[in-house]
Design goal:
By secondary structure, this protein is an alpha/beta fold. It is 47% helix and 15% strand. The protein is built from 17 helices and 14 strands. α7 packs across α8, α11 packs across α13 and α16 runs antiparallel to α17. The longest helix has 22 residues. Bound molecules: adenosine monophosphate and zinc ion.
Length: 472
């Protein structure tokens, strides 16, 4: 069976044929590093990690290049640096914020079972490539300089009679509609309302670099050109897959296409544009004001990363996802079942049914159904099914440490309910006092199943005392 992927540009599921099977190339927009990532940000990271793993499975681990950038130049970063490190020179404060946030991000997504991308370029290390693209755009008549800014002109792009795509083709918007719908209070240096910034002057103290296109004052890049530059540097002018969340289609990805196609005189930037749907929490849009804004870090305090990962994959990547406590509890139960069944399995190959589901535009709900089927077969004695279950789980980023470690991490992660343990111990002590040893043994076994080990002794008054600890 061949790999088929849905392309946002053509709005269809098509067979995926890499430009070069020896080097399949994928770019995904990464985080802007100024704060802990929230669980919505985890969605593209997990979704494209699964695709990365699938591509490695199909084309070989050494034949896939996955680039996910780190945006480390941004107004939000500057604001956070000034707030958190008053008195420290801004550039130093920015470095502290971006380094610390990048470290947190890596810890979080590692815990979610995601492989590191092949390359993680930082925007500030690609200013030369950005300047070079901007120069090409100015020279080609697609961009112009005004008041120390460089602006891209979608109108100029559409007027060019060439191989270029139409501006708005990805987002399915027409330039005329955009002009009609644009706000009137447009910046004075823009010729047209739809023009967007490629380069702008830096305020004093802000990070700045020598400007392109003959501008003498130092400046900094606009967000969209950063991704065009990093994708170009690491994947070339034209590559296979470009991904990100659905909110990035317009303007970010539309503008990336415009910049890259105009700079390199090409009809396409990426052959497939892939976008994950949005995540909401308990039926509501996640926002700080609603108080339902939840970071990956907070969730990892209560749940093992695999539970968060599986919970994300229960929904197809293009559908919206409703993140609920109930869903997390179900995911934990499912993993429990799978891990217990897959424990001690021989090493082997992932199941065809799992791979086939993934090849069909990453149909993870179908893949999960296939895993349930394997467990079912394994329970009725199918050793091959047990092996395939374990190998499939490993391919998908689960079962990395084996089932035993899962048991202990799960208990740490899900929080010990000490009150419940004490209540059961009280019941057991009462049962022993009335010499109902059948009942006291039953309670001891129940606690043992929860990972709680009991120690019976005597208190200073000679009465029996039971203490407990968590089995490690
Ligand atoms: P940002 O840091 O906001 O640029 O987002 C980083 C990545 O997370 C982008 O690919 C976004 O599309 C994605 N993203 C942000 N919020 C959500 C959400 N609630 N659900 C799914 N993806 C999201
Ligand atoms: Zn981007």
């Amino acid at each position: 069976m061949e790999l088929r992927l849905y392309d946002t540009l053509t709005k269809e599921k098509r067979p995926f044929q890499p430009l070069d099977p020896g080097n399949v190339r994928m770019y995904v927009c990464g985080p802007t590093v100024y704060d802990f990532a929230h669980i919505g940000n985890a969605r593209p990271v997990i979704v494209f990690d699964v695709l990365f793993r699938l591509l490695r499975q199909v084309y070989g681990a050494d034949h896939v290049t996955y680039v996910r950038n780190i945006t480390d130049v941004d107004d939000k970063i500057n604001a956070r640096a000034a707030r958190d490190f008053p008195g420290v020179p801004l550039n130093e404060a920015i470095r502290k914020v971006t380094e610390e946030t990048e470290k947190q991000f890596h810890e979080d997504v590692d815990a979610l079972g995601c492989l590191r991308p092949t390359v993680e370029p930082r925007a500030t290390e690609h200013i030369a490539e950005m300047r070079s693209i901007i120069e090409k755009l100015v020279a080609g008549g697609f961009a112009y300089v005004a008041e120390d800014h460089v602006l891209f002109s979608p109108q100029a792009m559409d007027a060019a009679n060439s191989v270029l795509p139409r501006y708005g083709a990805l987002a399915k918007r027409s330039l005329d509609e955009m002009i009609a719908g644009a706000r009137v209070d447009v910046a004075p240096y823009k010729r047209d309302v739809t023009d967007f910034v490629l380069w702008k002057p830096s305020k004093p103290g802000e990070p700045s670099w020598p400007s392109p296109a003959g501008i003498t004052t130092p400046g900094r890049p606009g967000w969209h050109v950063e991704c065009s530059a990093m994708a170009w540097k690491h994947l070339g002018e034209h590559f296979d897959i470009h991904g990100g969340g659905i909110d990035l289609v317009f303007p970010h990805h539309e503008n990336e296409v415009a910049q890259s196609c105009c700079a390199f005189h090409r009809s396409r930037m990426a052959n497939f544009w892939m976008h994950n749907g949005f995540l909401q929490v308990e039926g509501e849009k996640m926002s700080k004001s609603l108080g339902n804004f939840v970071t990956i870090r907070e969730l990892l305090a209560d749940w093992p990363g695999e539970v968060l990962r599986l919970n994300m994959l229960k929904t197809h990547y293009r559908s919206p996802i409703d993140w609920t406590l109930k869903g997390l509890e179900e995911s934990e139960k499912t993993l429990d079942d799978w891990y217990r069944t897959a424990a001690d399995a021989q090493s082997g190959q992932p199941a065809d049914g799992v791979i086939e589901a993934l090849l069909d535009d990453m149909n993870t709900p179908q893949m999960i159904a296939a895993l349930h089927g394997l467990r079912h077969n394994a329970l009725s004695g199918g050793e091959a099914a047990r092996t395939e279950l374990a190998a499939s789980l490993r391919l998908l980023g689960f079962l990395s440490e084996g089932a035993a470690q899962w048991e202990s991490r799960k208990r740490q992660g899900s929080g010990i309910d000490a009150a419940q343990i004490e209540r059961l111990i009280g019941e057991r002590t009462a049962a022993r006092a009335r010499k109902d040893f059948k009942e006291s043994d039953r309670i001891r076994d129940e606690l043992a199943a929860m990972g709680v080990v009991l120690k019976d002794g005597k208190g200073p008054d000679g009465k029996p005392v039971t203490t407990w600890e968590i089995e490690r």
